[in-house]
Design brief:
eight-stranded antiparallel beta sheet, 2 helices, globular
Length: 147
C-alpha cells in the first residue's frame, strides 16, 4: 500500500488542531524531530494531545506550545513561574525560559512508543519523568564544562 504525505505549515496545523481541542477531542499526532529523544523517536512514535488550562500545568508535563517564531514544539516543563514556564526537550540541555502560558496549546496525556501505549499518569512514566528532569542538571553541567 502506498502512503501519501503532505507538508503543512504551523498555521495550517494550528487551524486543524485547535478546533478539535476546543471540542474536547483527544488528538493523536506523529512525533517529528528528535528533541524528545530517547522518550520518543521521529517517525516511530505518536502522542495524544488534550486541551488544557495553560495556567494549571506542572513541572514534568509535556506540552505543545507555539514559539514567538510561530514554530510549534513539544517539550517538557522544567520550571513553573507565575506567568510562564521554562521548557526543555529531553535530548537538549538548553532551557527555553519564560515561555508565556498563553502560548501553550495542549498537553500530552498519553503516547505510543515502539507500538506500546503509555499514559502520562502512570507511576512508571512519572518516575521516568522525574529522573529525566533530575538528569537535566547533570546534562547542563556537562555542557557548561565543554564550553
Amino acid at each position: 500500500m502506498h502512503r501519501s504525505s503532505a507538508k503543512i505549515t504551523p498555521d495550517q496545523l494550528s487551524a486543524l488542531l485547535l478546533p478539535m481541542l476546543e471540542l474536547n477531542w483527544n488528538v493523536a499526532i506523529p512525533v517529528t524531530g528528535n528533541s524528545m529523544y530517547p522518550l520518543w523517536k521521529h517517525g516511530r512514535d505518536e502522542v495524544v494531545l488534550t486541551k488544557c488550562d495553560p495556567c494549571a500545568l506542572k513541572k514534568g508535563d509535556i506540552v505543545l506550545y507555539r514559539r514567538s517564531t510561530g514554530q510549534m514544539v513539544l517539550h517538557r516543563i522544567v520550571k513553573v513561574r507565575p506567568d510562564s514556564y521554562d521548557m526543555c526537550g529531553d535530548a537538549q540541555s538548553q532551557i527555553e525560559s519564560k515561555l508565556p502560558q498563553k502560548n501553550v496549546m495542549a498537553v500530552v496525556t498519553s503516547f505510543t512508543r515502539k507500538g506500546r501505549e503509555y499514559n502520562c499518569g502512570q507511576f512508571r512514566y512519572r518516575v521516568y519523568a522525574s529522573v529525566w528532569m533530575w538528569i537535566l542538571r547533570l546534562r547542563r553541567i556537562g555542557t557548561i564544562r565543554r564550553i
